[in-house]
Structures are given as structure tokens and as C-alpha cells.
From TrEMBL:
Protein name from the UniProt record: Ion channel
Signal peptide: none
Domain Potassium channel, first and last residues per copy: 166-214
InterPro entries membership: K_chnl_dom
Keywords: Membrane, Transmembrane, Transmembrane helix
Amino acid sequence: MFDKLYHTRFELFLSSQVAILFGSLIVPSAIFENVLEPILFLVNLFAGVVLISKKPKLMWFGMAMLFVSAVVFAISTGLAINSRELGFIRMTGYFLFYLVVTLEILKQVWFAEQVSKNVIFGLISGYISLGLIGFFICLTIELVIPGSFMGGALSGLGNNGLLAEELMYFSFITLMTIGYGDILPVTGLAQKATMFIGLTGQVYLVIITAVVVGKFLQQK
């Protein structure tokens, strides 16, 4: 099955990422955050397993992360348990998985001999993956040290599911170095994470994107 899906690996991965980012524009936020978004993350994890399926060790690691995430989601949904510990386990699993998949995407894009449609999709999905990694870092920090991020709609959210949506917004705004300033990192750890996300976005655009553009110009 993985062999049949492998040639569309970047399309699958990118389409599920776009659904995660913009699904709340179609589905009400409360329903999306609590029900649909976790399912979309599982779909994206599966697409990531397809993407790394040519490397058996990475594939089995991805399968393990997918299984753990599915179990945590089943416990949270079926038993109506949404503890901080389960949230931390889920975020840690997502972070490790996306770190591995993003590195594999970068390798495949970097070593591609020809700039094809797949390479362009891979370039885009790699950038989105960096934003998701930043989101998991920020959300984990907020779960461990509540109040690390302040401002905007975060004020008074508490354990509301909209917390994740606000921090995802913050991560991508920081990655793109827009920095509206409506959400602020107020602890030392949160500030260091924000610096890391911003630097990562700049390095990706300056180096990885430039390499792909250079290859495209050469083949033309």
C-alpha cells in the first residue's frame, strides 16, 4: 500500500497540513479543535509514514508514533479524559514525529536532481512542518508553564481548546517574521523558543528555497 501511495507522498502530506491549518474556516472552531483537528493530525501522521516508508527504521518509528497518538486520542475522546499529562504525551509524540519527517523532507528536496512538482510540494510542506514543530514547542511550553504566552485571545482562555489555535497562529506568524505583537512570550523559555522559530524560518527561506530555485534555473 505504501508503495502505491509513495509517488503522491508530498501531495498527501501537504493537503492534510492545509486542512489542519485552515479547517476552522469551514467548521466551527469549537468542533474543529476538539474533534476534527486531532483526526486530521492522525491523517497527517499517516501521510508522514508514507513519506518515510522507504526507510524501514523511520517507518516503524512513524508507525509507533501514529499508534501512540491514536491511543491518546481514543482515551481523550472515548473516556472524556483531557488531562495535562495526556496532552504532554501527545505533543511530545507529534514533535518527535514532525522533526523526523521534516528532516527527511529536507533531504529529499535537497538531493533532488530535478525540480519537479513533487519537489515544489515538498518545499512547501517542509516549511509548513517547521511551523507545526514551532506550534508543538509553544503548546508544550504552555502546558508545562501556564501563562508563558500572553495577549490576544489567550487572555482568559485557560484550558479552552482555542488555546491550540492561538498558539498555532503565533508559531506561523513568528516563522514568517510578521510579528504583529498581539501575542507575546513572557517567560525566558517561551522567548528562546520564539527566537528559534523565527531563525528557523529565515534559514529555510534563505538556504533551502535558494537551493531549489538554483536547481530550477539550471535545468531551464
